[in-house]
Predict the structure.
Amino acid sequence: MKNKLFTIFKLLLPYVEIAISILAYYQIKDNGKQKKTDHPYYLYLLAVIGLIVLIRIIVGLFNKTVRDKIIYQAPLFTGVIVFLMILNILTSKTLLLPTLYFPSLDRIVGLLVENRIFLLTNVIDSLKLLITGFLWGATVGFFTGLALGYFKIVGYWLNPVTKVIGPIPTTAWIPLALSTFPTTHGANVFLIAFAVWFPVTLMTSSGIQGVANVNFEVSRTLGASTLYQILHVAIPAAMPSIFLGIFYGTVSSFATLMAVEMNGNSSGIGWYINWQKSVMMYDGVYAGLIIIAAICSLSLTILFKVRDKVLVWQKGVIKW
């Protein structure tokens, strides 16, 4: 009985905090410095969060997995709502933060809603550039790391080169890339690919070199060819390290995307953030940052799901 009451209490926490946030929104006087919006977009955001929690609770009535997740995540949702309430009070109700640099949540969420078509266009342009550069970098990085890790002669000649040029920050290559490639787009693709190439190369090479030599000796004794050893021994055993390199490369690609889109681009989220900063519209800056953070988080979540499917054999062997 106590466990049931405690579970109900946890599930009600987000709604209690939403009610407190609404009271604070209306009962605490505004500072009068923030630009007014046509609608209370901050409250709309709270309503969306509350609706998401409610839908998951309803689904959880029929699905134990969803029920366990929402019970576990209810305090987290509550924490997010508390954070938003405190942030809204600091920006809209007090003068503790400079109004110019810290717009209200109404303005930020309102901009995301009202400029959604224009923002979506920029997101699509950024994703095209990001995906192209990422695929090139991950592909070349994988084969480079494979060659470095498996073939000693390749490692002898290429390891010094990789160790010299790999750690150089991607942004340091911007002037050279812009002067070498015929178009800005080509230069930007190269820079993103380079940001992905090094961590994928490094972790793939490290993963293959970390495979126990006895595995290769046994397969060789059983008559396995070099190609068979690469495909069925080296790569499968190195997959955890390869995925780690892809994760690092994904984060680096987003950081590089923000930098390269400020180099002569006329679209993209990085360009949009830079443009909004230049005209002192910081609600647009924060909106762009929220979008890029959401896309990066979604990308990593998808990669983790793929990793879990590919490396399902790790479950129960390592801490999962």
User: Anything to note?
Assistant: The chain has two domains: 2-102, 116-314. The radius of gyration is 25 Å. The mean pLDDT is 89.
